[in-house]
Design goal:
CATH topology of the largest domain in chain A: TIM Barrel
Number of domains of chain A: 2
Strand order of the largest sheet of chain A: 7-8-9-10-11-12-13-14
Low-confidence stretches of chain A: none
Mean pLDDT of chain A: 93
Distance between the termini of chain A: 53 Å
Largest sheet of chain A: 8 strands, parallel, barrel
Order of helices and strands of chain A: EHEEHEEEEHEHEHEHEHEHEHHEH
CATH class of the largest domain in chain A: Alpha Beta
CATH architecture of the largest domain in chain A: Alpha-Beta Barrel
Radius of gyration of chain A: 23 Å
Largest interface: A-B, 54 and 55 residues
Oligomer: homotetramer
Number of helices of chain A: 11
Chain lengths: ~350, ~350, ~350, ~350
């Protein structure tokens, strides 16, 4: 960590800071520049402790962290990419790009069974579908809850798919864990630290969605929360950030793929449906994601988008989904990855 | 609600949409413009249901909501400003601007007792202090938890102050409710809907902090979640939004004060400490807030900021806090409000 | 255009607005909803005139434009994509994806000649290089100016390349027009309206870079300025927008490609160098751009990035550039486009 | 400046960088930490030269500048605040807060004469009014140009006011300089470097508006461009930044006032009209600005906002303006400043 002293700090001010750092047990090196003094701090540093202590000195201009705050997610902790295995033939993070698809919300038996069969037939491996739904309005449909989980399970078994579904509250981790293969943490809960810890102990893979306004560092730190409880099977999911542009629902940050794969060893999945919010942009977004190295896609598909109880405007019809996968297969091959489509 | 059809939608496309809307039970009016047709929808509309249904029609360009999605928080529901009473002499939302102050985290008995006495002596009415702390890193100090709540209670009783403290998880609502006078919901949990519902049932006032990237509408909708459970004593707290500027920790959005007070009847509190993240900017920010109509301030104060376990860089010394209040008293008077300082 | 009246507007308020609109020569239709009245305005509307006039009525809540404000750039004005021809074998907007490359700034004869030969050999068609440089600091290298233009011309002729170079001021349009094949308007000048009009009259294609914080609509309106002077050969260039994320120099908005190509008929070029600001991200960004339908790429290449006078951190070595093009050729083929590489 | 080497950089990599820095004439100090090496660079550093040279080394993780890039605008260059004098009794930057007001655009003789008289009578000292208008659409009213300047001059002389008006192109500096007392550079031209240099040589004060997405540093660097040409009479004007919030036209960043006044010695003016875009928010924004230390306000006033050719929705009526000034007088007094109102 580096401490930059204010221009008008004198020798006494510098000494006071040096003393405080040494009192905390670190080694220091100071460099006197032409107008300002900087102090380098050496040791296995507790970042927040240091920032809190030093931040309050009036003559410190800024504190520059040098080491990344995340440890377990860091490439320097584990260099080979993490490959998550679900049963015999489903992996996330390997050469094959994993396709997850399904409706925004589980609505009824026919809807979820039909969708599961259609996506399986097109090439998907994992069924998505919300049973507990985070809704901006308290007056909107909040999901079928446990009944939805049961339908999801039935549809997945019928088609031979794995399940991913969202958990919104630490109180539901146990219940949802009975049905799902992967826990999904939504963007709004990315920093719901109690929930992160709870799924960190639940013994199943977790897909963590990036908060609307989370930096890469904050996103990785949220994964670190889960990993620090002993669960290393974390999948990072980019689903659009909030910017000034309002033509799309969010701005899908595709460059996050190579960045996150450089900084961490975790698999990266893209959600082109929430990332764009418009059906006509789902396929272009998915194509870019595959070309740029995504390890998976999670896509909203619905038998009749115009009758969907949620997210109809960004859900693909079965035929659109199937055609998209076929085109993606060619792009995956061009970048030496693999997508199965029929 | 208004539906704008795409330029190339023909009469058949328009009819299909009109039929769907009428099937849902609403009255329609369509207007044929030079290049596009628009449809007005009349009735007590379920926004999300309509948006979901119509959003998926390929020939609809956009859907423009006309009514605000919030009902209970709306000025049109209740025109007089909400005044929250805590015991006999503490109110939030009246002529007097309510001062809340205290350390970021409760650290030990002496720290919290000293701080409570100092802020009381300066003019504050409510003691803040975190017992459960949301921390970006799992490796940082997470708060004293129940022990912290007990210390907070002891300090508040000793000084004759009310308490505000953060609840981070629905599992802690009951416990924290035993100690606090006001629940605080942090910015990261603004859309933790289960938590919102839980505090909506807890029978005590709730101060809801605006999420880093929440629009006014989303912020008010989160308050609506709490109110829809029957708890109307909600306080809105602006604490800085995230922008491209990185000189300050956040960008404090002071214009939110007149906006939120126009759109809702709820009291608005400003947090100049998190809003700026820099001790030298706390007083200017608080001054602006008072001038612009804030109903309260929540300020970080610590006996020794350089030794604080968290947020030292934005905490005021006792003397700074006292001087700030004295200056604010004059500004409050200039805008026909009242701040008590000694 | 639609006018939404405030909830508390009465019949007299509505009539006043209706009268004003009719006085301006438009036809009106009003719809009385349950809580608010909306007014539809029909005719070939002068948006800004209407917004200015009506915006000041105190009982109007909001004004919702229905027609796009751009005409000449609109797909509804011209449906086939614009293909720009430069001499016999260089086109922008056709099946072949056009590669533009070169140093940030022209520094000396050897640098530009070597670069031109290297990029030509790799497959590029157009040489980029700044002679007039927009620099954040007045104390930085500002470019070789006319001498730079001459070197650029010499290098382009030596290698058989076309030229693109930036014009920063309306005073230089004539001079730069003597040397360049395409004018580049930088992001900082996207709304320098005098400059836009000037290049709109200069008789050569113009590549317009998106401002750091320009919405799609504002970006297209800036193109409309150029086109409204009679120059229809405009290329749109996305080069990153400003967000809260600071790991990359900017956030490259790749979804802009399908959006801009849907809304307009103009070719879209991506700048992965400025868009990311990091050499290791240039190839992934370019790969995504090609997969998502970009009509061209503009890439910074330098013989010795570590000795570059500007943008060294985002410039590719010759070998990196060549390898990138080879890989892009495969991706282009997978999406039925063409990139020439050797 | 500090250079942070990548974790995997070895002694040879570090040496290569050290050699390059020393070759450029600077002194170095390196500190080996537990996982990374950092290098301190000492001397009067040419930031951009260094960043460009070093940025391209593959083993450098990041470069952290220590000195501010601006010199002449810096408080460390000149500590006393700059006070700009216009004739005998108008100053900007002194104890009195300077009020500038007038219509968005000069429309005709009666409009500008009436407005000048009304604002003078209320307490304003400087008349604003656009003769050359930057408009997002090429089809909108572009201003009366020289005729507008003449009317502005006539109105100012009639009422005894000074003039501020916008210059949009370097080609107009001479013409506008014949009429105006202060040049205004609009937000869209904040980084139009040729224009900045031109007004830097024009011998009259310049008010520079902050770009919609300019950081404080970039804003100050733009002022530095003007100052580096010898013109030290620069006024900084905050007029709202672009964020995700769309209820207001922009997000007015009031905390910029204490920040800019700490970092520079230049006067800071707030534009509450563009900063909010809504008439009902102009007075609250102005009140906050005065309380927080603004040296001036620039406000849109129009005899009949509902008939204005531009910005009617954010223009005050004469009576509203007068009442606002009266209220501001009390707030100014509370923070030991002065506003004249009648």
């Amino acid at each position: 960590m580096i401490v930059v002293m204010e221009r008008n700090a004198d020798a006494k001010d510098v000494k006071e800071v040096l003393d405080r750092i040494e009192e905390m047990g670190y080694e220091t090196h100071s460099i006197e520049g032409i107008s300002k003094t900087i102090i380098g701090i050496i040791g296995n540093i507790d970042r927040e402790e240091l920032i809190n202590s030093l931040g309050a000195y009036p003559n410190i201009e800024k504190i520059v962290p040098i080491q990344e705050p995340y440890k377990l997610a860091n490439r320097s902790f584990k260099n080979e990419p993490t490959v998550i295995k679900l049963g015999e033939d489903v992996t996330i993070g390997g050469k094959e790009i994993t396709i997850m698809a399904g409706p925004c919300a589980v609505e009824n038996e026919k809807q979820i069974i039909d969708t599961a069969r259609a996506i399986k037939k097109a090439g998907a491996k994992i069924l998505r579908g919300g049973a507990f739904k985070p809704r901006t309005s308290p007056y909107s449909f909040q999901g079928l809850q446990e009944k939805g989980l049961k339908l999801l399970k039935m549809a997945a078994e019928d088609s031979g798919l794995k399940i991913i579904t969202e958990v919104m509250s630490s109180e539901h981790v146990e219940l949802i864990g009975k049905y799902t293969d992967i826990f999904q943490i939504g963007a709004r809960n990315m920093q719901n630290f109690y929930l992160l810890k709870k799924v960190g102990n639940a013994g199943k893979p977790v897909m963590l969605k990036r908060g609307l306004t989370a930096t890469y560092k904050e996103f990785i730190m949220a994964a670190e929360y889960i990993m620090s409880e002993g669960n290393y099977n974390v999948i990072l999911c980019e689903r659009g950030i909030r910017t000034f542009e309002d033509y799309t629902r969010n701005t899908l940050d595709l460059i996050s793929i190579p960045v996150l794969k450089k900084l961490t060893h975790l698999p990266v999945v893209i959600d082109p449906s929430h990332g764009t919010g418009r059906r006509d942009l789902v396929a272009p977004a998915a194509t870019g994601a595959v070309a740029m190295g995504a390890d998976g896609l999670i896509v909203e598909v619905h038998p009749h988008p115009v009758k969907a109880l949620s997210d109809g405007q960004q859900s693909l019809h079965f035929a659109e989904f199937r055609e998209m996968l076929r085109n993606l297969t060619k792009v995956a091959r061009a970048v030496d990855r693999k997508i199965i489509s029929y």
